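Response to reviewer comment R2.3. The reviewers asked that we include at least one raw input/output pair. We reproduce the pair for RDD here without editing.
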Amino acid sequence: METPSLARRMACWLYEGMLMFGVVFIAGYLFGTLSQTRNAMDNRHALQAFLFVVFGIYFVWFWSQGQTLAMKTWNIQVVDRAGQPITQARALLRYVLCWLWFLPALAGVAPFKLTGSESVVIVISWVVIWAIFSRLQPQQQFWHDVLAGTRLVSKPRLNR
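Raw output as returned:
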């Protein structure tokens, strides 16, 4: 089982972010309509919680099937340590642990009155550091995968 390169995994991650824009748009519209929210600042914490759940459903569903839409494009598959498809419980654990990409940096900037651009720089810096940490892992896996008992592998292309 070959581990995809860091550049390929990060490109997949970036593409996943673009696809998630559509998910956020539809979920946000649905939330706003159902909650009768008139102002963007009203119900924002409820919206964030709703989006956390929607993201969880999206990722747990696709990871338990083996791949998200972006992972299919980049021929990357998530499997357990034995190379078998992951269960929904393991996919849920992986989803929660994936927040290690953002939560430490967000928790670090929360107590300070930083500008938006300063916060973005700190969060992006943490993401880069977390990605580089994967180079220290013997199988070059991300640390949330190691903790969840999963791994990303290159999926062989099918010749048609």
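The first strand starts at residue 76 and ends at 80. The mean pLDDT is 91. Further pairs are available on request from the corresponding author.
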